[in-house]
Design goal:
262 residues, five-stranded mixed beta sheet, 6 helices, alpha+beta, binds 2-oxoadipic acid, binds magnesium ion, 26% helix
Length: 262
């Protein structure tokens, strides 16, 4: 049975307010077992509309659960997408206020900045690479609005795939001749290496995650606009952080980016 528009709005408002008030909630499928992934993306659209109405600008998109490490960590089995707003962006090296977050974790990712718009269906890795202006190292801070990061697929889609903050490096690298499959990634916390990985952890090639995003958007009548920043998904498992921590991601040939938590 499909959910009524008023119910979709209600769930979006609940998740919007949970983020604003820094308060966790139980996963939304507990109260709404009829929430399937299709309805969950409608909730995500409604959440986006609430933020845009508040003056947030849409800056890009993110893929999630694109690696086996993340799927296993979260107990789900399909990639998902969410949106990135101007309220999620943090400057390279800047401080993130933990008081504004519930239970943040960090992930090492590769960011794509799109020069050209892309439209599905059947988007290919080659089309993604040809449309990419540059690649940047990225850290995504995820902060599920659900108690103990416990969710199922519809619940995490509705919650904009736990999107919270992200930082990207400031030195743009071109795609030309770069081997995105064997590109090495190191995540450090407080000067210690905590996770390592290679690009291939993300669907065999992070560009494939962007192609999948384009096709998933197409299935819902949408496309990826030129100028979008796309986080292609965590290459490693997510690592919990707290006030006082600093984290750094280094990626072969793409340089590094970092954040401090205060
Ligand atoms: C969902 C978001 C996952 C990624 O890169 O895999 C994600 C979560 O694990 O809370 O952003
Ligand atoms: Mg992520």
């Amino acid at each position: 049975m499909s959910l009524l528009p008023a119910t979709i709005e209600e769930i979006a408002t609940l998740l919007h307010d949970a983020e604003r008030d820094v308060r966790d909630v139980v996963k939304v499928t507990d109260a709404q077992p009829d929430l399937d992934t299709e309805a969950a993306y409608r909730v995500q659209d409604a959440l986006r509309a609430l933020k845009l109405a508040r003056g947030v600008r849409l800056v890009g998109m993110k893929m999630g659960l694109t690696s086996f490490a993340k799927m296993e960590q979260m107990g789900v089995d399909t990639p998902i997408y969410g949106f990135l707003g101007s309220d999620n962006a943090v400057d390279d090296g800047a401080a993130v206020e933990t008081a504004a977050l519930i239970h943040p974790k960090v992930e090492a990712e590769i960011a794509f900045v799109m020069r050209d718009a892309l439209q599905g269906p059947d988007c290919t890795v080659e089309q993604v690479l040809a449309a990419t202006a540059c690649l940047l190292p990225a850290i995504e801070v995820i902060d599920s609005r659900y108690e103990n990061f416990r969710f199922d697929l519809p619940s995490v889609i509705a919650d904009n795939t736990s999107a919270s903050r992200y930082v990207i490096g400031s030195k743009a690298a071109t795609v030309d001749g770069r081997d995105l499959e064997s590109i090495g990634v190191v995540l450090e916390k407080n000067g210690q290496v905590v996770e390592v990985g290679a690009g291939a952890a993300v669907l065999g090639n992070p560009a494939r995650a962007v192609a999948m995003l384009v096709d998933m958007l197409h299935a819902r009548g949408q496309s990826l606009p030129a100028g979008s920043v796309v986080l292609s998904g965590a290459i490693t498992a997510a690592v919990a952080v707290e006030g006082g921590d600093h984290v750094q991601v280094r990626i072969d040939g793409l340089g590094s980016t970092g954040l401090r938590f205060v």
